[in-house]
Amino acid sequence: MELTYKDFCNEIKKGRLLGLKCEGCGKVIFPVKSFCPDCGGNKLKKIELSKRGKIKTYTVIRVAPEGFNPPYIVAIVELPEDVLVMGNLDFDPEKAGLFLLGKEVEIGYKEVPGDKYSGGGGIALLFSLVE
Amino acid sequence: MREVAIVGVGMTNFGKHEETLLEMFGDAANEALLDAQLSPKEIEALFIGNCLGDFAEGQANISPFCASVIGLKDIPTIRVECACATATVAIREAVLTVANGVYDTVLAGGTEKTLVMGTPFATRTFAMASDSRFEGFAGITFPGAFALMAILYSREYGVPLEVLKEKMAMIAVKNHKNGAKNPKAHFRKVITIDDVKNSIMVADPLQLYDCCPFTDGAAAVVITTLEKAKRICKKPVVVAGTGLASAGAIIDQDIPRIKAREKAAKVAYAQAGMTPNDIDVCELHDCFTIAEIIATEGLGFFEHGQGWKAVDKGETDIGGKIPINPSGGLKARGHPIGATGAAQVYTIAKQLREEAGEFQVDGAKVGMIDTLGGDFSVVCNLILKRGW
Ligand SMILES: [Zn+2]
Question: The complex's ipTM?
């Protein structure tokens, strides 16, 4: 794969949010794939994605999977490249509301240790509101 | 391809079971074989749905044991896992093998135990059906995934969230009203809109009564050629069309629509030579109240962005324009995930045979099954019709 999850994690820790771009049709691709879903091409190159986007939707998780500490916000953010990313919003869950929709966020990350079923740890994107 | 029919159906009560996965499957298979008046010896292959046996009982590789528990050996057995769509996919695979002449008579179904895991661990195992890297580490849950959809639906279609929530509550009330009439349902109690509104928040804006429960149960169906079915049974239920489609992570989808469903349904309708207007009764995937609204649109019963109005007018009630989930749906019948699709087939077969008792839809001749797995990444549809 041109971009593995391990590389994705290593790069975000260096401040770069990576995705792929199809050299055949120009489509920006996220999450990572080995073929372009639009044209079927396999010439995909790593690109750096914007680290700013807008909140498309969100929820406050109050009943969580084992290993997570509720309440916390999960949000989907739309990037200018027309791709979506999921992560946590660094914001008081008790103050969350529909006003969050469309708000601009900056994209960082947090390390998640994982559990015995997760194949090691990973990262969750962490969004913070841009004022 | 040969025409295929369902000649026997069986289902345990849904709820909390002391019985094991295999014992529940044995009971459901026994009822199905009795219904078909066939000996297990006539079963040539077994397609069993089970998602979480590995976690609930430490039981992997369940399919050969499912055959063994009904006294069968030396037959091919296949375990299917597609999250909550598991059993429907197992049944579809079984139908395809019979249609293509691989086998004449097969058994398919599902068995699942979730309650023994407790809520935090069960929530963890359900969440495993999302993308483990790009979604899982954010702590997404299934109520969470549909909560994201509810907010997006409200915004995309300009339906104020409090209005949408009122209609969602009415769907919970409708499905509980139906479930109260179903002797095999997990919840057999009527609820009110206030019960929904007073329940705890699970994933904003979804409250506890917007969510289906964790449930144990099993269901099984006997599938054979229509030719054989006509010889051995008075009311064979024909599999008129099937569809199955997939998608990637939520962030890879065209939300709030569920395109996998739209494709699966389109294929099933085309194969059946039918349109949504031909469907008399539908059991669909109401894992959450918002999910019922989105499903009724994706299956073509209502326009996109309009499905939320249906419950208000009684259009989805028993006796309405398109009765949705007369058995109580996942909400009230319960949701033992790997068995749910087989329970939907059980209940639609009963409807077409006019054996659904108190929740019978009068004169139902064509029924549809809709089952969704993961965070909208797999949807399987079946269209069943009377074969007599
Ligand atoms: Zn391309």
Answer: 0.98
Detail the DSSP E strand segments found in B247-357: 281-283
Distance CA B41, CA B165 (A): 51
How confident is the prediction for chain A on average, in pLDDT? 97
Residue A131's pLDDT band, with cuts at 50, 70 and 90, is: confident
Are the Cβ atoms of B201 and A56 closer than 8 angstroms?
A: no
Q: Assign B198 to helix, strand or coil.
A: helix
User: pLDDT tens digit string along A47-61?
Assistant: 999 999 999 999 999
CB contact (8 A) between residue A86 and residue B134: yes
Predicted confidence (pLDDT) per residue in B335-347, tens digit: 999 999 999 999 9
Please, what is the end-to-end C-alpha distance for chain B in angstroms? Answer: 20
The range of the structural domain enclosing residue B32 comes to 4-117+215-238
Domain tally for chain B? 2
> Under an 8 A CB cutoff, do A85 and B251 touch?
yes
- For residues B249 and B314, state if they share a domain: yes
Selecting among B51, B84, B211, B287, the annotated active-site residue is: B84
Please report, for the domain that includes residue B22, its CATH number: 3.40.47.10
Residues with CB under 5 A from ligand 1 (ion): A 22, 24-25, 27, 36, 38-39, 41
